Amino acid sequence: MKPCPSTTRQLIRLRDRVLARSRQIMLELSGGDPEGILSPRHHGLILRRQRARLLISRVRIVAFVFAILTPLWIAVDLAVFPPEIALPLGIARLLTSTAFFSLALMYADSDRVWHAWVALGLMFLIPTLFFLYSHSLLAGTDMEGVSAAMAAGYAYLPFVMLSGLAVFPLTALEAAVFALPVVAAQALTGLLGQDLMGWSNQLGATWLLVLIAVVAALAGMSQLHFMAELVRRSSHDALTGCLNRASGEELVRLHFSMARRTGEPVTVVFMDLDRFKSINDRFGHDIGDVVLYQAANAIREQLRDTDTLIRWGGEEFVLLLPGATRSDACRALARLQSNGLGLRPDGRPLTASFGLADTLTPGVSDVDSLVETADRHMYAAKRAGGDRIVAGLEPTP
Questions:
Q1: Per the CB 3.0–4.6 Å rule, which of 36, 45, 63, 264 could disulfide with 103?
Q2: In angstroms, rounded to a whole number, what is the distance separating the alpha carbons of residues 233 and 136?
Q3: Contact 52, 224 (CB under 8 A)
Q4: pLDDT at position 395
């Protein structure tokens, strides 16, 4: 029997509305950047470092709290369970508390994302192992009254664990990865016949656990979006949309450190808009701001995805070109000069003086000398008349 055409059309319209609403919710949650809350690979270096610090800080706080609270329950176990149950549970609690204390001391000063992932993974692994052990111990013992009620309480540990996901700013992928082992542990106890709640409640409990994980993941994703927005606003120049100097300096240092470890070159380009002061003096600062904005857009349009434009101050900009040598940068800057930076208010082309240095430049031993060398070359370009590139000793028109 074929479905009625009108019913098919209604189902298609319903599907389209659901998909459209889902996309709208995702855009609202992500602030227009859904990739950023779905996977961490779309995060920039600054956001990755800030988030890693926050994740590790919260893991250490939670681990410290649980390290103190976990052994306190030993007194309750001794009061309600027989010794053959209470003593093994007490030993397990002490081992769990020790593991939490060790976790609280890990990665104190780290800002690496993989350290945060390891710490968060251990944060969920430690109670999961305790849950599996306590479940297997309690499920094999016949109990009644208060003992049975307390034993059943152990079955709800996964719910507490997954609700804790909401504490951390996580992407959807990360939340799924950390939640899956906990859900699997809950399902495993039922498959092995160790379900303290009874088979009649196992399916409902697992479904409720998944719902809690989804809600907690949404809360974490919302935190991540809020954090990303704060990082973006605090790290970018309000006028041009470029990275500001403070964040730019941090990013240059990060790339310089990576270049030293990997041997890959990094080039820093100092650029200064030629005769910009005359624009402000003749046409006013509002027109000067428009010229700066248009110049920044013109530069950004010609950059690679991996390149970064930084407003260093006034009409000075810095280009950070990872993986590029001075020769590569010179070719890119020549194209930038050819395509133009926009027009001055009087209709003449806007030009700039460029000075650059890379991590392979003689005399560059640290990040400060890298930046100073590029800055010195830029002033050499200006003294030579502007609208040129200086990559070494001689200016290049």
A1: 63
A2: 51
A3: no
A4: 42
Task: Give yes or no for residue 196 having a pLDDT over 60.
Answer: no
Which has the closest alpha carbon to 368: 258, 272, 237, 257?
257
Give rounded-to-5 percent helix, strand, coil for the chain: 70, 10, 25
* 245-396 CATH: 3.30.70.270
Q: Residue 23 has which token pair? A: 């996309």
- Using CA atoms, how far apart are residues 141 and 341, in angstroms rounded to an integer? 78
The whole-angstrom separation of Cα 345 and Cα 187 is 69
Q: How many residues does the chain have?
A: 397
| Tokens describing residue 46 | 């600054």
pLDDT in tens, 113-164: 999 999 999 999 999 999 989 888 887 666 677 777 787 778 788 888 999 9
* Sequence-ordered list of residues with C-beta below 8 angstroms from that of 198, at least 6 positions apart, any chain: none
Task: Give the CA distances from residue 283 to residues 212, 294, 344, 346, in Å, rounded to whole numbers and listed in that order.
Answer: 60, 16, 10, 9
**Residues forming a β-bridge with 266:** 322
Q: Would you list the domain boundaries of the chain?
A: 25-234, 245-396
For the range 188-195, what are the long-range contacts, defined as Cβ-Cβ under 8 Å and sequence gap of 24 or more?
A: 188/132, 189/132, 189/135, 189/136, 189/139, 189/155, 192/136, 193/139, 194/135, 194/136, 194/139, 194/140, 195/139, 195/155
